[in-house]
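Note on ligand handling. Small-molecule inputs were canonicalized before submission; formal charges were left as drawn, and no protonation-state enumeration was performed. Where a ligand contained multiple stereocentres, the stereochemistry in the source SMILES was retained. For zinc ion, this procedure yielded the string shown in the input block below.
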Amino acid sequence: MCDFEEFIFTCGHSTFRLKSYCHFARNHPQHACRRVKKLRNCWDQGRPCDACAAEAEAAAAAEAERWRVMQMEMAMMAGMEQLDEKPPGLA
Ligand SMILES: [Zn+2]
Ligand SMILES: [Zn+2]
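Structure output:
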């Protein structure tokens, strides 16, 4: 059997990585192994997997863009209000 280790991510996904081939797979030209795969280690990654991290990053970027547009609109509205006011000293 071949040795595998599992990486567990906080998003619930996990990936397996081959740690070492067994004697059977080592001698096979394509390193194929038809035997039981043995899980040697489980690593808690303490972070989301790459796909989920990229997704979260894209969502954060979209959120930042929304926030930027909102700030701009608010600044524009504040600017228009100032234009309606009379200049100081001429009341
Ligand atoms: Zn094997
Ligand atoms: Zn994930």
